Amino acid sequence: MKQLSVSLMFGACVLASASALAVAQNPAAPVRVASAELRRLSPTVSVSGQVQSQSTADLAASVEGNLAWVADVGTPVKAGQVVAKLDTAQLALQRAELAARVTRAQITLKQAQREYERLKGAGDAITREQLDIQENVRDLAVSDLEIAKATQHELEEKLSRMEFRAPFAGVVVERVKRAGEYAAIGDVVARLGGNGGLEIGRAHV
Fold it and tell me: pTM (2 decimals)?
């Protein structure tokens, strides 16, 4: 009986030592006490989507042709700056031909007008029929010059549409087509993003 009491006391001492060692190795975590308070929280919704600029523009072809140059992605541009352009080699030849045509029409009109003034001032030395004929020649020269100038203006307007200009200041975010590729009317050549804020496009809850 005495031996059993000694064993129990020895076991109790061992357990006490183990507990003390465990407490020493794992001290109690500090506890912070705060007063409860009522706050209004904004509701949140998790969504996935594509972050994009609030201002975007697709630069599409209004005339057809082969692309000569397209700005690289990431290129900053100012409003009105050229972002891409079509090959204008053939139209440049037409421009030269039309310029020569306008010059010839101007010379022809000048000569016809001079001859008409000469005949008109000749008095009875010429017939009315001769004067009418020369007047018709002069009027035809006027028409030829107007047609030549109208054709020239149409070509210049077409040339201006062969350049793709930025509608606002921004950056090139996508190059849809590259130099050498053919662009039909309506084809998107490049996409432009503005310098404004961002938004999430095509979001999915």
Answer: 0.59
